[in-house]
């Protein structure tokens, strides 16, 4: 892509496969989940080589450096050549831990409501018989 052409931030984040759709990329920009030098940026911001963005997705937090401009979505193996992932290690580990416990939507084992078997045992212990 020539330097004279302009590339929107939402289109770039979609093209390098940070977001699944361009709409999600634009929504992330609008809600303050994409930052350049600590300040929120809008989806229409022009991307330049050398820019460093902090991007928060549902899965993890990214810190990326733009190494090339990519306007159209390509295979992951090609897309990763257009940015450099400079996310600190501790951030990556922290997000992985949180994702395993908080963002899955599943409850942790042996915590919370009893299973069917445990419920039958409780009812039996309490002297309550099932009525049909």
Automatic annotation (TrEMBL):
The keyword Zinc does not apply. Signal peptide: none annotated. Residues 106-119 have a biased composition (Basic residues). The keyword RNA-binding applies. Residues 106-132 are annotated as: Disordered. Transmembrane segments: none annotated. InterPro entries: S4_RNA-bd_sf. Keywords: RNA-binding, Stress response. One of its GO terms (molecular function) is RNA binding. It comes from the Bacteria. This is Heat shock protein Hsp15. The lineage of its organism: Bacteria, Pseudomonadati, Bacteroidota, Chitinophagia, Chitinophagales.
């Amino acid at each position: 892509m020539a330097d004279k052409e302009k590339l929107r931030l939402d289109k770039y984040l979609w093209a390098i496969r940070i977001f699944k759709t361009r709409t999600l990329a634009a929504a992330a920009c609008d809600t303050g989940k994409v930052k350049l030098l600590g300040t929120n940026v809008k989806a229409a911001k022009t991307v330049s080589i050398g820019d460093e963005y902090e991007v928060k997705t549902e899965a993890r937090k990214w810190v990326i450096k733009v190494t090339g401009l990519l306007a159209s979505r390509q295979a992951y193996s090609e897309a990763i050549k257009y940015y450099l992932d400079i996310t600190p290690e501790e951030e990556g580990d922290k997000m992985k831990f949180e994702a395993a416990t908080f963002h899955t939507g599943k409850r942790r084992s042996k915590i919370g409501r009893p299973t069917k078997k445990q419920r039958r045992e409780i009812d039996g212990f309490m002297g309550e018989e099932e009525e049909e």
